[in-house]
Design goal:
The protein is an alpha+beta fold. The protein contains 9 helices and 14 strands. The two termini are 29 Å apart.
């Protein structure tokens, strides 16, 4: 999935903790083998190659994830769109990125649209109504993998845990002697500084920012969070940090809110049960979904 995963477990039973960690990593590796767009042999790559000619059967849990992503696409009005793969491929951020032509963007946007995705509950298959379509689960798969890893750790009795997949975090329990895990949120314009910290337990926290994958051309920053309706990097935000019960929910919500922009993004976060967050807009101003979250932020500084 193009990222580094770290698992931290606080336990007095080292042998059991290490076994649980290895089992959690094995689950993440299974998911990566199925969902990584970086791997030509992955299930998702096969779906993208063959899904127009014939629907492709997928594992039950993967079908549920894709269905969840499609439902989230609907709820966000397409700000998060699980079929954004033609645009992701066109921009090529994984290979350094390039600015597409107007014609290329127009053609790619025409192939994006979650309503053109075909999900067959009967046989658990996935397909598309147009050639050239494809799934990009990058804005939800990391969070979902974090959730599955957390399930494995919990099943093995690990209660004080952090799973971190490149900034998609989920925490359970607490750091010994503290009663919480202290999580830092990066300043989107200063990689060496924190915008604030939060003392958390039993929650997921995800930050999406324009500093994660980008290139600059003629003084313009082009980043990987794309607006499915225009094909261009979403403008108006520097970063979005979301807290939610699951990392998948937080992951997808952060992307949707980023694309929607500060005002509509905050309204969207407020509409999601159990979800809250903060948006740093293009000018560096902070927009909180609720005052209670702002009150929890420690060492708050302005980017």
């Amino acid at each position: 999935m193009g990222t580094v995963v770290e698992i931290t477990v606080a336990s007095r039973e080292e042998k059991e903790a290490m076994a649980a960690i290895q089992a959690a990593f094995a689950e993440i590796e299974r998911i990566d083998a199925l969902l990584s767009s970086h791997r030509t042999d992955s299930l998702i790559s096969r779906v993208n190659r063959e899904g127009f000619r014939a629907k492709v059967p997928v594992e039950k849990d993967i079908f549920q994830l894709i269905r969840e992503a499609a439902s989230f696409s609907e709820a966000s009005g397409g700000a998060f769109d699980v079929t954004v793969w033609p645009l992701s491929k066109l921009w090529g951020f994984d290979e350094g990125g390039r600015r597409p032509s107007v014609t290329e963007l127009r053609d790619a946007v025409a192939k994006v649209g979650y309503r053109k995705l075909v999900l067959d509950q009967g046989d658990g298959s996935v397909g598309f109504t147009l050639p050239g379509m494809g799934l990009d689960l990058g804005a939800i798969a990391k969070g979902w993998a974090v959730d599955r890893a957390m399930d494995v750790l919990a099943a093995r009795g690990m209660t004080d845990v952090i799973v971190d997949a490149g900034g998609d975090l989920r925490v359970a329990g607490s750091r010994p002697g503290k009663g919480f895990w202290r999580i830092g949120v990066q300043d989107p314009r200063d990689s060496g500084s924190l915008l604030f910290t939060l003392d958390l337990t039993d929650t997921a926290i995800v930050t999406s920012g324009d500093y994660e994958r980008f290139f600059e051309e003629d003084g313009v920053r082009y980043h990987h969070i794309l607006d499915p309706t225009t094909g261009m990097p979403a403008c108006g935000c520097r970063s979005v940090t979301v807290l939610a019960p699951t990392a998948a929910e937080a992951d997808a919500s952060a992307t949707a809110a980023f694309v929607l922009g500060a005002q509509r993004g905050v309204a969207f976060l407020r509409s999601r049960p159990g979800v809250r967050g903060v948006i740093v807009d293009g000018a560096g101003s902070l927009h909180w979904s609720d005052a209670a979250l702002e009150a929890l932020a420690r060492g708050l500084r302005r980017p």
